[in-house]
């Protein structure tokens, strides 16, 4: 059981409590189980989608490689936030559910309602518990929204497919392009370093795809995203220092 001392700023002792570790590892176990079930289901039903087992393996490999770059960003943010929220909360809140910006904003707002700020002398154990609860409610709303909206969007997809099957090939790609474009545009006004990172990563991605196409190297297309993200990070690091 976690015993709170309202004026104590010793957050680490309760942020890494055994109970929180048990809950965090339980969530991780569920995610690993879901991943295993999905991978087995894909392999069993690949023939129905006219995919060979080799193509399935290539798809898994491409997804794994593409996740390297974004995962590095998450790891860097998680390390920076460990002193504030502890390892179990970071594993669940930022590593699996939600985003660093959203979760930190939720915690900051919750701390502000108690007249405290994250990380300073006013950040006591009581404030930590309230901030953690706010982060948990934020993540729960994400999951509930997905649970409620997914069936609705699925029905919309079926309707669009009946009207124009080709449209469903365009809409997902357009939505994905719009999402990444929106994220990129919001970063550009922040500083010249942000612009440099975007330009360098875009250049690396373009060159990688051109080389992959001209030399017919499928592996380079799979690694292009990872190369571009790492290149952007390196360029930003050099410019900052």
Reconstruct the topology from this structure:
Layout: H1 12-15, H2 18-44, H3 53-66, H4 68-93, H5 100-113, H6 125-163, H7 167-187, H8 192-215, H9 218-240
Task: Give an account of the 3D structure.
- There is one protein chain.
- With 241 residues, the chain is an all-alpha fold.
- It contains nine helices and no strands.
- Helix 2 (18-44) packs across helix 4 and helix 8 packs antiparallel against helix 9 (218-240).
- The chain is globular, with a radius of gyration of 22 Å.
Helix/sheet category:
mainly alpha
| Pattern of helices and strands | HHHHHHHHH
Number of helical stretches of at least 4 residues:
9
**Overall outline:** globular
How many strand units?
0
Q: Calculate the mean pLDDT score and round it.
A: 81
CA-to-CA gap between the ends?
A: 46 Å
| Strand fraction | under 5%
Main attributes?
disordered N terminus; 9 helices; 80% helix; 241 residues; mainly alpha
Summary, kept brief:
This protein is mainly alpha-helical and 241 residues long.
């Amino acid at each position: 059981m976690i015993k709170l001392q309202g004026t104590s700023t010793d957050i680490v002792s309760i942020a890494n409590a055994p109970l929180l570790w048990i809950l965090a590892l339980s969530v991780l176990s569920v995610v690993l189980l879901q991943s295993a079930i999905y991978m087995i289901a894909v392999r069993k039903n690949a023939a129905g989608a006219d995919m060979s087992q080799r193509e399935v393996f290539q798809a898994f490999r491409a997804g794994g490689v593409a996740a390297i770059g974004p995962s590095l960003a998450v790891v860097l943010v998680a390390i920076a936030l460990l002193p504030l929220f502890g390892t179990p909360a970071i594993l669940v809140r930022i590593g699996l559910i939600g985003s660093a910006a959203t979760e930190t904003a939720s915690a900051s707002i919750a701390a502000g309602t108690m007249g405290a700020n994250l990380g300073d002398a006013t950040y006591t154990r009581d404030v930590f518990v309230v901030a953690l609860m706010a982060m948990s409610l934020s993540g729960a709303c994400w999951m509930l929204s997905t649970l409620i909206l997914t069936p609705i969007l699925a029905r919309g997809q079926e309707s669009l497919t009946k009207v124009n099957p080709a449209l469903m090939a365009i809409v997902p790609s357009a939505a994905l392009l719009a999402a990444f474009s929106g994220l990129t545009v919001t970063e550009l006004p922040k500083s010249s370093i942000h612009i440099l990172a975007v330009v360098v990563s875009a250049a690396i991605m373009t060159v990688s795809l051109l080389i992959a196409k001209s030399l017919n190297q499928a592996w380079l297309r799979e690694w292009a995203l990872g190369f571009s993200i790492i290149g952007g990070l390196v360029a930003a690091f050099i410019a900052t220092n």
